[in-house]
Design brief:
Elements (H helix, E strand, L loop, with lengths): L7 H12 L3 H4 L23 H13 E4 L2 H13 L1 H5 L3 E4 L6 H7 L6 E5 L9 H7 L6 E5 L9 H14 L7 E3 L7 H13 L4 E4 L5 H7 L7 E4 L5 H11 L3 H6 E3 L7 H6 L27 H15 L2 H5 L19 H4 L2 E4 L4 H11 L9 E4 L5 H4 L4 H6 L7 E2 L20 H11 L5 E5 L6 E2 L11 E5 L4 E2 L2 H5 L7 E6 L2 H9 L7 E4 L6 H8 L5 E5 H6 L4 H4 L5 E5 L20 E5 L9 H13 L10 E4 L8 H6 L1 H10 L4 E3 L14
Parallel strand pairs: 1-2, 2-3, 3-4, 4-5, 5-6, 6-7, 7-8, 9-10, 10-11, 11-12, 12-14, 13-15, 14-16, 16-17, 17-18, 18-19, 19-20, 20-21, 21-22
Helix pairs in contact: 1-3, 4-6, 6-7, 7-8, 8-9, 22-23, 26-28
């Protein structure tokens, strides 16, 4: 029987991108380790099949990262059980002390060429094994990490520094040093002195260009070939420090910038902020007198240039709400065919902009149907003080609107209705009448009107997204309201009257699937009683849960995602269900404001909530996202973290706890 398996060389090429750790990441000396990410272990690739195990094992052990005592113990057991594994290790990164297992690891790893050692060691850690094992190595590169300000001082750190100093004097291959120091402190002197005495150092890495003079003076007895500044050149260094380096040509000959933009001092001083772009070569025309579109009809000219101007006037960018400062000046390109594109997306940023725009539409009525989106970013009482209503005039002439208002996208749940400038009720009526058949998104902040007709919603046939912020009182017209807003999919109620909620409750709203209730009105319960069964996503506040007579989840049995806004956790009883809801897979706890450092008693409240949460009534819940949660990045902080305790508690219930970045907690290897 023929063997159809791939050659090992091909499998190696396939697995290398997934298993390889780049040298840039391995040697990263950022404050937060680049390996403090909670992702699936790459060792999972070894479990696919025997051929993958055979090929992937050397790749996996080539670069080893140790970030916990449990990892160190597991590695020591693996190396002690299979002597061949240690020979694969070429780079070793040790981010702690990790006790006796480190000696076994270093004894079994004779081929280590690159060694990363952290000096951020707490007194509760143990560096005895690491200190003894350092003398067994002979690396070519040493990377040290230490705190820039207030480095730790304790017995374990002192032992490690002394062991490093002793070992460095014996390492006859060491020629590259990544230096964490910026001044000659006692600790720095202990480490640096044997490097200077050995006179073997050829490459030196420092954090900032501003420390290059100190580094050059300190290591000038070494045969240095390069001094690498790892951090990009700062603006103050470019202005105040770099010009002085010209007076030291020997240092300048050694200094190498890591700046991704520049490679020389002259370029830095000239302020070149972008690399030169290589433009593609365009073959010249075979006819030197060729004139594009010379024989084309005028309407062809118009169509081509209209399309060109569509992009030249930044219409796609404006439709995506990019920052206006990133948009180049458009007025110079404003030509006859550019006007429709120019007015396609309009944002009125000042009170004087509305009258000016209304006047422009009055002079040139043909522009009105080309306006696709219209927003307001100013607050003014001009409609009432002067008896004029420029927004009414504008909305009477913009008959092709697709979106009104909306500085931010509802899809990201970051829009605040308070940011939108208000309009009068008459202006809103005009928009509904003129653009009702085209309007898809409406972010409306409307001045209160006492006696409004619900018939207005019957004309908004294309509306898919509505953010409502108005206390307007409505007449109850059951027939008209029952057939209103047939296409509405997303509804965000920021502020509303009881009559508005009643009108919505009498509508059929067949397409409604997503609702955000930012107002804590008891009348919202009537709305959920009517439309709750069709909802798949709901956002409410924890206070709203507490004032509800009925359980929200009972009124909305088909939810897939349920979001609760509040700084503290809700009462677990408010989420209790006597019968299970099988549709819910995700629960989100949004914060009214985000705090990175929460007090112990506040986290204790979350621990109590998760303990009391009845997950048996939520059999398919798989993810709980907490905006105020942030995973710790060191073994010491992990051991103290209340969030980790919550996550471990939920993992036992087959539910993942997710932090503000969208990263779920993964259980770490434990020491037995």
């Amino acid at each position: 029987m023929s063997d159809h398996s791939l050659p090992d060389e091909i499998i190696s090429e396939i697995l290398s991108p997934a298993l390889k750790v780049s040298d840039e990441v391995f040697s990263d000396t950022s404050r937060v380790s680049p390996f403090s990410k909670y992702s699936e272990s790459t060792s999972a690739y070894l479990l696919v099949c025997k051929s993958w195990l055979r090929v992937a094992t050397p790749l996996l052990y080539n670069v080893v990262i140790l970030r916990s005592k449990a990892q160190a113990k597991a590695l020591s057991l693996a190396l002690a059980g299979n002597k061949m594994l240690g020979k694969f290790i070429k780079k070793l990164r040790v981010e702690g002390g990790y006790g006796a297992p480190m000696l076994t690891i270093l004894q079994c790893s004779p081929n280590i060429s690159d060694l990363f050692v952290s000096l951020e060691i707490y007194s509760s850690d143990n560096t005895n094994g690491l200190c003894k094992g350092l003398q067994l190595l002979n690396p070519t590169r040493l990377i040290l990490w230490d705190l820039s300000f207030r480095p730790l001082e304790n017995k374990m750190v002192s032992q490690l520094v002394d062991a490093l100093a002793k070992s460095i004097s014996q390492w006859d291959r060491l020629s590259v040093f990544d230096c964490p120091f910026a001044a000659t402190t006692n600790r720095a002197k202990k480490v640096i002195s044997p490097l200077i005495r050995s006179k073997r150092l050829q490459a030196l890495a420092i954090s900032f260009v501003s420390t290059s003079s100190w580094a050059y003076d300190t290591f000038k007895e070494c045969p240095l070939k390069v001094i690498q500044a790892k951090q990009p050149v700062q603006e103050w260094e470019r202005t105040h420090y770099l010009p002085r380096l010209k007076n030291d040509p020997k240092l300048m000959a050694l200094l190498k910038f890591t700046d991704t933009i520049t490679r020389s001092l002259d370029e830095l001083e000239r302020g070149h902020l972008e690399p030169a772009l290589e433009l593609p070569l365009i073959a010249p025309s075979l006819n030197p007198s060729f004139t594009p579109l010379a024989g084309a009809p005028e309407d062809v000219h118009d169509k081509i240039w209209a399309r060109v101007l569509h992009f030249a006037m930044s219409v796609p960018e404006l439709a995506n709400d990019v920052k206006w400062k990133d948009i180049p000046r458009r007025v110079p390109l404003l030509l006859r065919l550019g006007l429709p594109s120019y007015y396609a997306h309009v944002m009125l940023r000042r009170s004087s902009a509305a009258p000016s725009f209304a006047s422009a539409l009055s002079r040139n009525p043909s522009l009105g149907p080309h306006v696709r989106s219209l927003g307001i970013q100013y607050w003014s009482s001009i409609d009432h003080e002067f008896g004029t209503n420029p927004m009414l005039a504008i909305l009477l002439r913009t008959s092709g609107l697709l979106r009104f208002g909306g500085n931010k996208d509802l899809a990201n749940d970051t829009f605040s209705a308070d940011e939108e400038g208000p309009i009068s009720w008459n202006a809103f009526e005009a928009m509904a009448q003129c653009s009702g058949s085209t309007l898809r998104e409406c972010f409306a902040r409307i001045h209160t009107y006492q006696v409004a007709s619900a018939n207005i919603f019957a004309g908004l046939t294309a509306l898919r997204t509505l953010i409502w912020n108005s206390s307007t009182t409505f007449l109850e017209v059951p027939n008209a309201s029952g057939h209103g807003l047939p296409s509405l999919e997303k509804l965000w109620i920021s502020s509303a009257s009881t009559s508005f909620m009643t009108v919505l409750s009498r509508m059929k709203l067949p397409s409604l699937r997503r609702v955000i209730l930012s107002c804590d009105s008891p009348s919202s319960e009537i709305f959920l009683e009517t439309h709750g069964p069709k909802l798949t996503e709901l956002h409410v506040s924890s206070y709203f849960l507490s004032i509800m007579e009925s359980r929200v989840l009972k009124l909305c049995p088909n939810l897939r995602s349920f979001s609760i806004l509040g700084y503290r956790p809700p009462d677990a009883d408010d989420l209790y269900l006597s019968e299970p809801i099988t549709s819910l897979v995700k629960m989100i706890f949004e914060a009214s404001y985000v705090r990175r450092n929460m007090a112990k008693n506040e986290i204790a409240e979350w621990e109590q909530f998760f303990t009391e949460l009845n997950t048996e009534s939520l059999p398919n819940l798989r993810e709980i996202w907490v905006e105020n949660c942030e995973w710790p990045t060191t073994e010491r902080d992990i051991a103290k973290s209340g969030w980790v305790r919550c996550a471990e508690m939920m993992i036992k219930r087959n539910i993942n706890l997710v932090d503000r970045t969208g990263t779920k907690w993964r259980s770490r290897l434990q020491v037995k």
